[in-house]
Amino acid sequence: MDEAEDLVADIEALGGRLAEARSMVAKRIIGQDTVVEQVMAAMLAGGHALLIGLPGLGKTRLVETLSTVMGLSGGRIQFTPDLMPADILGSEVLEEGADGTRSFRFIQGPVFCQLLLADEINRASPRTQSALLQAMQERAVTVAGHEHALDKPFHVLATQNPLEQEGTYPLPEAQLDRFLLQVDVEYPDRDAERDIILATTGADEEQASAVFNTDDLIAAQRLLRRMPVGENIVEMILDLVRACRPDDSSAPDTVRESVAWGPGPRAAQALMLLTRARALMDGRLAPGPDDVRALARPVLIHRMALTYAARARGESLGGIIDGVVGSLSLSEAAA
């Protein structure tokens, strides 16, 4: 069997296990198929996800379930206004030995895990939010001049309340850019909500069990990067990202007039990885244009900002992104 056949066999085998994992998650997370798909795609791509929604929509339950199903050690930080960076990263304490000598010992904070739930991350001050920057990008933290490596794999799934709620702080742009995608958690439809109340208020409740372990997930992340991507998909990703930058020559008038700043190269990197992950979970051997369209909004929306005038006109970033995606689709059809 040659290398290409080996790759196909590995992708097909992984697709089957991912289907099993999604089925396991669906036992506890009802009516949120798109949310589950996007968060699992972020984990397959080796990145982080930001979940935005009102309280009570199952965000915390989703993260806890994924920790079990993917076989990862989980940690949780409840972000509050008085939370300090040391409460996240850990700190050095001075200890005295039996012989009277003194030395510093590093006590790890809750960030030292494989799947970190940063709950209500925007309730903490910007200073505390920024404590996660190095951890999310470099998978390490520096305390008192010493660098400490985090566990592998390391993922942050952060929940955020809508900014309109009292007691919230907007996340710094540099930190937002480190999330592969923003997942909007909406209210379930009526049928799904009926299933939820029946499944969660009875004497017995469905429990999740492990489908992956740490080594399995790391192997899946490596396999994902070997997945082929067609030249047309690469060009579509570049066209989309560059068209959302107001100072780019390819940007449409709506972007030039309404967007203050657009996505950087990390957005294109995220789309490359996430389109592969979505195809993999669908049992396909390579991503297609539909994967780019489906992921455009969650990948780009937190990497852009509206101008003051656009906000005053009541425009939305989601609508602008959808318009850009629509124009790309028309161009593709014409070609």
CATH class of the largest domain: Alpha Beta
Regarding quaternary structure, what we see is single chain
**How many separate domains?**
2
Indicate the structural class. alpha/beta
Mean pLDDT: 86
Tally of individual helices: 15
Could you give the order of the helices and strands?
Answer: HHEHEHEEEHHEEEHEHHHHEHHEHH
CATH superfamily of the largest domain: P-loop containing nucleotide triphosphate hydrolases
Task: Tell me which CATH architecture of the largest domain applies here.
Answer: 3-Layer(aba) Sandwich
Give a short account of the largest sheet. 5 strands, parallel
Shape descriptor: globular
Low-confidence stretches: none
Rg is: 21 Å
How much of the sequence lies in strands comes to 15-25%
Provide the spatial order of strands within the biggest beta sheet.
2-5-8-1-9
How many beta strands in the DSSP annotation? 11
Summarize the amount of helix as a percent range: 40-55%
CATH topology of the largest domain: Rossmann fold
Structural commentary:
- With 335 residues, the protein is α/β, with parallel strands linked by helices.
- The protein has 2 domains: 1-226, Rossmann fold, CATH 3.40.50; 230-335, Magnesium chelatase subunit I, C-Terminal domain (Helicase, Ruva Protein, domain 3).
- Helix content is 48%, strand content 15%.
- It contains 15 helices and 11 strands.
- The strands form 4 sheets. The protein has a 5-stranded parallel beta sheet. A two-stranded antiparallel sheet has the order 3-4.
- A hairpin with a 5-residue loop joins β3 (90-96) and β4 (102-108).
- α1 (3-26) crosses α9 (214-226) and α10 (231-243) runs parallel beside α13 (289-300).
- The mean pLDDT is 86.
